UniProtKB/TrEMBL annotation:
GO terms for molecular function: oxidoreductase activity. It comes from Cinchona calisaya. Gene3D superfamilies: NAD(P)-binding Rossmann-like Domain. Keywords: Oxidoreductase. This is Short-chain dehydrogenase TIC 32, chloroplastic-like. Belongs to the short-chain dehydrogenases/reductases (SDR) family. Pfam families: adh_short (PF00106).
């Protein structure tokens, strides 16, 4: 109850920021970002677009990958209209396709640019059951597996950049508090919804993908530490964004429900704050493997904090990106859900 009150009031936590803080506010005292090159997935709308706008305002060079180049160019134009000196490169990327991820990385490598910051922000909620071209359930393929491969292929570039520049690299995985809604065996459930639409539940599939984002963060943080790499990785819950709510009928009770719900939602500038805080703030130097909400370290679910499960998801992901995904589900099925 106390935490809810603090959230509604926007009370500042140990970081000095809270649920009402905006992306511009949390980056106000950050170092000049003109020496930073950042890749931001899902930057054509919503939280990703605001993240890109604010980082451009602070001077970062941006790489904007997108399925629709036109939409990305429109985003670039909007940022340039506000900050004409911004350095922005638009590139093609479909995160649901492992081929597209590999091509994007090859194209990025050909630019011979450094890479200081990777923000894995893109995500989708797939209402209808669908399978990616690689044979993986679409929500998991887009929200998690594409980002897993993208991070894997860009990691050496980030490690090299950090070593040559002395600037610590940062990876930010955008998750959601909805990750805590998933229970059971992740690999077993992924196998069941990949094989059959009859087991598919859109919300549970989304929760699974967001759980995987946090488990990926946990395992990658350990591996970076073992490598003694000057790169950190953290995951964030941005909050639920305030949008126009539609309703079929009006009335006092309905009005009250919508009023109360609106107080729990964030504006887009507020929702982008935690990502920007974790990506840029000096306080986060050498902090890795953590989960943040409202610009402060938070507690992920028990399953999301399980290091054994994190290692298991990592091993399964390696198989999915390097072999026929259908070979995954038998050896990694732990128990049935």
């Amino acid at each position: 109850m106390l935490e809810t009150v603090k959230y509604l009031l926007g009370s500042a936590g140990p970081s000095g920021f809270g649920s009402k803080s905006t992306a511009e506010q949390v980056t106000h005292f950050s170092p000049d970002l003109t020496s930073i090159t950042a890749i931001i997935t899902g930057a054509t709308s919503g939280i990703g677009a605001e993240t890109a706008r604010v980082l451009a305002k602070r001077g970062a060079r941006l790489i904007l990958p997108a399925r629709s180049l036109k939409t990305a160019e429109d985003t670039k134009a909007r940022i340039l209209s506000e900050f004409p000196d911004s350095k922005i490169i638009v590139m093609a990327l479909d995160l649901s396709s492992l081929f597209s991820v590999r091509k994007f990385v090859a194209d990025f490598d050909s630019l011979d640019l450094p890479l200081n910051l990777l923000i894995n922000n893109a995500g989708k909620f797939t209402h209808e059951h669908a399978i990616s071209e690689d044979g993986i359930e679409m929500t998991f393929a887009t929200n998690y597996l594409g980002h897993f491969l993208l991070t894997k292929l860009l990691l050496n570039k980030m490690v090299e950049t950090a070593k040559s520049t002395g600037i610590q690299g940062r990876i930010v995985n955008v998750s959601s508090s909805i990750h805590s809604w998933f229970s059971g065996d992740p690999i077993s459930y992924l196998g069941s919804i990949t094989r059959s639409r009859s087991h598919y539940d859109a919300t549970r599939a989304y929760a699974l993908s967001k759980l995987a984002n946090i488990l990926h963060t946990k395992e990658l943080a350990q591996k970076l530490n073992e490598m003694e790499a000057n790169v950190t990785v953290n995951s964030v819950h941005p909050g639920i964004v305030r949008t126009r709510l539609t309703r079929e009928r009006e009335g006092l009770i309905t009005d009250m429900v919508f009023f109360l719900a609106s107080k729990l939602l964030k504006t887009i500038p507020q929702a982008a704050a935690t990502t920007c805080y974790v990506a840029t703030h000096p306080r986060l130097e050498n902090v890795s493997g953590k989960y943040f909400a409202d610009c402060n370290e938070a507690q992920a679910s028990k399953l999301a904090s399980n290091l054994i499960e994190a290692a298991r998801i990592w091993s399964a992901s390696e198989i999915m990106v390097s072999k026929d995904p259908k070979s995954l589900f038998e050896p990694f099925s732990g128990y049935q859900t």
